[in-house]
Structures are given as C-alpha cells and as structure tokens.
C-alpha cells in the first residue's frame, strides 16, 4: 500500500494537531483545573497517535502514547498538573514537532525519545516526585505487568472502575471485535472501531493494548472493556458499520461476571491496595465531569473545525488574473445589454454582475492570511524563554487578525522571533531590577499588527529598560562602526538605529539567546528585502518599541477613488482623516507654502494636479475645491482634488519592474471597468 | 544554412522591424492607457493586460523619432525580456515570417535615425525587403531611463 499519497495529508494534519496541542497546553497552564481543556488535548494527542501509527512513524506514536497516558490520568483527576508535568509535556511536543519536521523534509521521522518516554512513564507511575520510593513502586508495577499478562484481562484497578460504574448506573460491556481475514489496514479499521467506541463511552481496557493494536501488532480480533450508556444492539451495530469488521461480540457485564475477567487471587500486595482505595472517591466526580465533557465533545464533533485545503499560490495568481479578465467582459456585457434593452438579457447580466461581485470578494481574499498563523507560535516561545531567563513576562498579542499577503507571511516569522528574543533578553529586566526601578516584577511585551496607509505595521513593544544611546555610541566607537566625530553628529534616534549594524551587541555577556551580535542586522536586511522598514522608539528606563513597516504588495485595501480631470486615482482610506470642501480664498500663503486652517490647526495644502502634472484639471479655475485630509503619524495635510467617485476595495498591483519609482505613486489597481488607476502614496506628501 | 528564426514583423514609419517570436507575449489592439506622471514622455503609461499592469512605451519616442497619433492599424506588442514585461506601441504588426540567421548582417551605424546599439542586425528577405532586428535588452535598458529622467529634470 502506497502511503505517500497520504503523507502530505498526514503532515498537514499533524501540524494542525501539534499547534492545537501547544495552544491548549498553554491555556491549561493558566487554568490547570479546567478539565475540558484536557479533553481537547487528549483528543488531539490521540488522533495524532493514531495517524502516526498508521503511517508507520513508530517513535512519533510511542511518544504520543506516553503523553496520552499522562493526559489520561489528568483528565480522570488521578493526577494534578504541576510545572514538572507541563515542562515534560512541552518537551514532548517539541520532540514531536522535530519529528514531524523531519518527515516533512523527507526523513523517516525517527528520533531517540527514550529519555522523554522514561520521564513520562515516571509521571504516570507517580514516582517522579519521590525518587526514594521509585524502586519499590517500579517493582510493584512490574508485578502488575505480570498479572495482566496472565489470563486475567483486568487488573484490580480496572475491575474496581467497572464495578463503580455499574453501581453508578452505567453499563459495562465486554466486546470482542473480529476483523475480516482479507482486511488490509487492520490498524485503521481498529482505530475506526475505537473511534465508534469512544463516541459511545469510555474504553477501560483493551487486549492487546491500544498501542499494539495501532501498530498492527494483533491478529484478527481484539477485546475491549467499555463503560457506556448506549444499549447493546446500538453498540454492535455501530461497530459492525465499520467496514471489514466481520463480527462484534458485545456482552453486557454485571458485577459478578466482571470477576471472571479480574485477577483470580484477591490477595493483592499491600502497597497496591493503598492506591486503588485512594482513588474511588474522586473517581465518581471525575466520571460526571468526563460525561459532561463528552456531551460537549459530541456537539463540537458535528461542527467540523476549520476545514481547509492547501493551494499553490501560482494557481491563486492565475485565478485572480483570469477573474480580472472576466470583470472586463462583464462591464462590456453591461454596456451591450443597456444598448439592446431586452428585459431577460439585462436581468441575466444583472445577476451575473452580482455573482461576480461576490466572486471578486472571495478571489481577492484567498491570498490573504491573518498574521495569526505566525503569531500563534510566540506565546509558547515567550514562555520558554522567560522561564529560561528567570524573568516574568506577559505577552499581549493584538491585531492577530490583520491580513497580510501569503508571501510576506512566510518570510516575516524569523525576524519577529529575533525581535521578540531581543526584547525578552535585553529589554525586560530581571524581576528584582524591575522592582528596584519601581515597576511591577512582571514585564509586558506587546506584539501588535495593524494596517496603516499602504502598509501593515508589526510592533514589538516592551516595558523594559530601553536603549541607552550613550552606551550604544560608546560601543559603536569601540567596534569601529563609526568615529567619535560622527557619533556627535547623530541624533539619539540615529544612535539607537546603530544596534541594527552588523556585528553589534550591547550585551555585556553572551547568552545562548542573543548577544552574539548576529540577529538585529539580519532582521533589518530581511525586512528591507521584503520592501519594508524597521524603526525604533525607545525611552531609557521605560521601554522600547520596534516597529516593522511592511508593504501590502498584492493585497486588498479600502480606498477612496477620486477623479482628476479625466484621470482616476485611488487614495488608501486608512490614511484619510476626512474629506471636505474649502473656499479658495481661505487658503493662506505662509513662507511660500499654501496653508489652511483645519479644526483649529494650520495644515499645508497640496495641489495634487501639480504634483501629478494633470493637464485636464486645475483647481485654480474653481471657487470651491474638494479636499482630502490625509495623515502620516500625527501630521496632517490636505490634498486638493477634482471630485470624489466613491469608496471601493482595490487590489494593489505593482507598476512592474520597468518603470522607475514614481514619487507620490505607490502602485496601481485595476478598476471594475478594467482600467488601471494609480494609487497615491499619502506618505509622500508629508515629510 | 544557419538556424531558422521565427520573427514578428512590425512597422515604424517606412521601416520594417523584427522581434523573435519567443520574446513576444501577445499583440494587442490599442486600448486606453493610464498615464503615469513624472516619467519620460515616451512612456505612455500602463495598461491592464489580463490582470497584470504593464508599462507601455511608444517605440517611436523611445528611438527619438517623431511620435504620431495612433491609427486603426496601431498595435501594442507585449514583449518579455530581462524579467520584465513591457508593451511597445508600433504603427502596425501583421506578419510572422521565418528567417535564416545567416542572412542577418551586423547593422550600420544608424538606421532610419535609430542608434546601432538598439539593433541586433539587419535581415534580408527576398530581394528588396530588409528587416531590422531589435536588440531588446538594450531597448529595455533601465539605466537609460534614469539618465533620460535626469536630463529632463
């Protein structure tokens, strides 16, 4: 059987599950009592395990299996989470990610996970806290293993769980599933059976073990003990509806018949007796919680989460281009139908116009991806680094829904990692220093994204110590980046920008995070290669903001379409403050510049027709002129224009490589009628 | 016998010119062109070619010839070279012919007012017909626009 066909699906889904695991573990860390999160985590882990076992990635499967064991105890309230368990689980996730990455790169997904498995197992055994008692309990465990490998299918603990649930009114079943002899994918079918069972109740025990089953290590049949509220026939039907299942033998158990499967000799060793007797009490409560969570799960399962497929970007490009052509034809058709004036023709054309408007929306948005897909790995990273550095840090993410072109998204991850690390390592101080400086001991790092003008801004802000410009210039002089003379001429801001120089580091000592002087210059060159720009705003003692400005190449923005004589232009809506009409005689001349009063302040007025050399319009012929007030940062300016056409969503297109960069023009767009309109860059009018 | 070349033939004034067929994307009729401010006068602006914005230049203006008003026969030839796509406005374009690369001679200094560096050679077709082969990468030389710009400023 050729597994390659499923490989890409496996990779996509594994990545999704790993991401979900990461997110939910972080959530759980903040709220360790919330068992519903554990349920979600458990499900992800379980699916991941099933998939990797089916695909033959055994190390992946065995590691997930051990993690699942730990989670299983947690969700049944037999184990409460603590920082050791979280750390181990996170390490496990990292290992899983590394293995999946290996698979992505064509490897076998093999890795040495034995150390992790041992520590996970020690959590399950509960002996990770007290190493002293490790030896006896390990021995007890071994004994347990011996017992269950004998004739008895259930150990004393599982027996008591079954008994408890029968007493609580649930039904316990012995189920023997036999697969057809010619079944090719036994593990897959078994997995589907387990899926059915888990939807109906809780699997207490399976023989052979779930792990062995998923690795195909079983003959044709396996035995499962299940607690469920469903009736016998429904279960039988459910299991037999899975294809290639030959027979499902479902037997209802009562308190007596269970004993048959339990250990015959009731003389359980003393240390073991202590454990089960401690469990039953919380067990009851846990059951109810589990049942409640199950109900939720069932509801969630019917609404599939984020169904996606992955598409080659080139195909999206050609889709978009084809669509633009369609638009042109649409406009022509509309013209023709208005000339021909036939009722049913214009009706059809109108309908087509509506459909194509919707289609346009969809096609244009296909290429855009929320920055969330980059941001969502940072909480985890920040947590790890903060822990590493013994700092307390809150990461606040805003604007994760801001959309960026896919190609930019792919490139922006690494620079952001550098900037965040830099803020965590150099920006935020140690808790003691923070308290001494009169700040709270927990540092806050903001990561935010937003649209402004033709750009998307991504900012990393910390409330740490800020950049010491004097120190920067001292080091720069020492490293030969600039001379003392030059340093004196630079503004504080320019000095701060020096930290982006290659080989520059202000860290007193090198840590494994940063301080080697590689990083920020890489960030800068990467951003520049994306056509973006990095800037710093920093106040000594108060914090630093790194601001990345990225162009919106090939993205959609809302714009105001305007007319200048017989030409049309688009102005990005995000930089428009307001529009209005002014009397020509209200314009005053100050130092040779035209200014008007606008809402209590005096702002410059720019003649757009002169800047763009428009011949067919001159505002000097008018008594009143329409203006557009634009903004860059906190500075304003008014552009005099001919008339407004209206607001529209436009696609940014580049003017091509041939044309030199044109001042005041940031790109072009194609209007609904197929004409090209130039997009005005408001930033060019304000210095 | 040299290699056989397929060539698109177009006219500027009285002369006939050729561009190798594999450099030509498509040939379009004249259509509305959006002017781009602050560019040399021979750059007529940009057009929308099936969703891609393509700059269009008047080949007469590019070669320093007199520009004329477009006619019914005027065409825009979209060429792709140096990783760029650019449209040329020409007086007419209506022929594809095969020529033998051996028949291409090196160009004289000036042909119809066009400097030799823009030309690849001159091909002789039949007895009387002469075809001027364009050197596209030189025609699309960006540095030259920059210089022109500086001259105009």
Automatic annotation (TrEMBL), chain A:
Q: GO CC terms for this protein? A: cytoplasm
Q: Please report the organism this UniProt entry assigns to the protein.
A: Paenibacillus curdlanolyticus YK9
Keywords (alphabetical) are:
ATP-binding, Chemotaxis, Kinase, Nucleotide-binding, Phosphoprotein, Transferase, Two-component regulatory system
Q: Which reaction does it catalyse?
A: ATP + protein L-histidine = ADP + protein N-phospho-L-histidine
Q: What is this protein called?
A: Chemotaxis protein CheA
Residue span of region Disordered: 263-292
Concerning Gene3D superfamilies, the annotation shows:
Histidine kinase CheA-like, homodimeric domain, Histidine kinase CheA-like, P2 response regulator-binding domain, Histidine kinase-like ATPase, C-terminal domain, HPT domain, SH3 Domains
Question: Does this entry carry the keyword ATP-binding?
Answer: yes
Low complexity: compositionally biased ranges = 267-292
For this protein, the Enzyme Commission number is 2.7.13.3
Q: Name one Pfam family in it.
A: HATPase_c
Stored SMART domains: CheW, H-kinase_dim, HATPase_c, HPT
Phosphohistidine found at? 46
GO BP annotation list: chemotaxis
Q: Where is the HPt domain?
A: 1-103
**Record flagged with keyword Membrane:** no
Gene Ontology MF term list? ATP binding; phosphorelay sensor kinase activity
Looking up PROSITE patterns in the UniProt record yields: CHEW (PS50851), HIS_KIN (PS50109), HPT (PS50894)
Q: Which residues belong to any copy of the CheW-like domain? A: 556-687
Q: Where is the Histidine kinase domain?
A: 304-554
Q: What is this organism's lineage?
A: Bacteria, Bacillati, Bacillota, Bacilli, Bacillales
UniProtKB/TrEMBL annotation, chain B:
Presence of keyword Cytoplasm:
yes
Keywords, A to Z? Answer: Chemotaxis, Cytoplasm
Transmembrane segments annotated in the record for this chain: none
Q: What is an example of a Pfam family matching this protein?
A: CheW
Gene Ontology CC: cytosol
Residues forming the CheW-like domain are 4-145
Q: Does the keyword Cytoplasm apply?
A: yes
Write down the superkingdom of origin.
Bacteria
Which cell locations does it reside in?
A: Cytoplasm
The processes (GO biological process) annotated in the record are: chemotaxis; signal transduction
Predominant localisation class:
cytoplasm
What PANTHER family does this protein map onto?
Answer: CHEMOTAXIS PROTEIN CHEW, CHEMOTAXIS SENSOR HISTIDINE KINASE-RELATED
Record protein name field: Chemotaxis protein CheW
Name the species this protein comes from: Paenibacillus curdlanolyticus YK9
Organismal lineage: Bacteria, Bacillati, Bacillota, Bacilli, Bacillales
